[in-house]
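G., the chain you wanted modeled:
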Amino acid sequence: MVNMKKRLISIVIPVYNEEENIHDLVERVFSVMAEQHAHYDYELILVDDGSTDNTLKIAVSLQVGHPCMKIIELRRNFGQTPAMAAGFDRARGDVIVPLDGDLQNDPFDIPRLVAKLDEGYDVVSGWRRDRKDKLISRKIPSWIANSVISVITGVRLHDYGCSLKAYHKDVVNTMNLYGDMHRFIPAVASWSGAKVTEMEVNHHPRLKGKTKYGINRTYRVILDLITIKFLGTFSTRPIHVFGGIGLLSMLFGFISAVVMGVMKIMYGTSMNRNPLLVISAMFMMMSVQFLLMGLLAEMLCRTYHESQSKTTYVIRNIYDSPSPKKSDN
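Predicted structure as C-alpha cells:
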C-alpha cells in the first residue's frame, strides 16, 4: 500500500505570562489533533512573547516527548502581531491556524476550520457569536470596531478580533505584519483575490490569569485601520492622495483669489483688510506642500518596495524538535 504524504497543519499560539493556562492549552491541542491523525499531521508552535513568569519553563517541560512541538522565545515583549509573525515565518504547514493562549479560543474548533478551508476558501475567520467577555470594556468596542472595519475595508466580517482563523500558507507568506495588523489579514487577503469566509466558533470565559487587552486598544486598532486602508489602496500611488489634496487646495486658493479680485474691482474693497488674501495664500502654500509631500511619498514607496524587508521581532532562542508528529496510514 502506497504511503501518501498527508497535509501538515501548523498551529501557532503566541503566549505572554500564561503560566496558569499553558499546560491545559497544550494538552487540549494534543488531544484534539491526536483524533485527527488519520487526516493530517501537525506541528504546534508556541511563541513566548517575552513572558516574565514561568510560561517558558513550563512550555519547555511540556515539549518532552512531543516532537511535533516547537517553542520560539522572543527577546522581549513585542506584542501579539510580531509574535504571530514569528510563528508564521517558521511554520512548515500547508495550513496555518493561530489561536490565543488564554484558553478562550477552543482548540476543538481547529478541525472544523480546516474542513471549511477545504471547501475552497483561502481564509476562514472565526466568529465568537456568543462571546464570553465583559460587555462595556470588550464586547461593545468590538462591535463598533468590526462594523467600522467592515465598512472601510469592504470585507464584511462579524469578528475581526478573533485570533482563531485558518489560512492557506501562501496567503500569509506574502504579508509583512506590523502594529496590531494580524486582525486585518482577511481584508488584505481579500484585496489580493483570496476567498474569505467566516464560521461560528466556541468562546470561553477566561478562568485563569489576567487579560492583556482592554478598551485602550481601540485607538490603536483605528490607527492601524487607517494605515492598512492607505497601504491597501494607495501604497503604490500615494501621489493620488497627497496630490489630490494639493490640487483641491490650489482650486480653493484660486477661487479665493478670484473673489478677492472681483471685490477689489467691483466694490473697491481694501486688499489689506480682506481675509480672503490670507485664505488664498494659505491654500496656495498648502497645495505646494501636499504636492511635494506626494512626490516624497512616491520616492519612499519605491524605496520600500525595492528594499529588504526586516522582521518586527527578535528571537532569543528556538527550542526545536526533530520533526512534526507523524501517523500511520
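The longest strand covers residues 7-15.

Shout if anything looks off.
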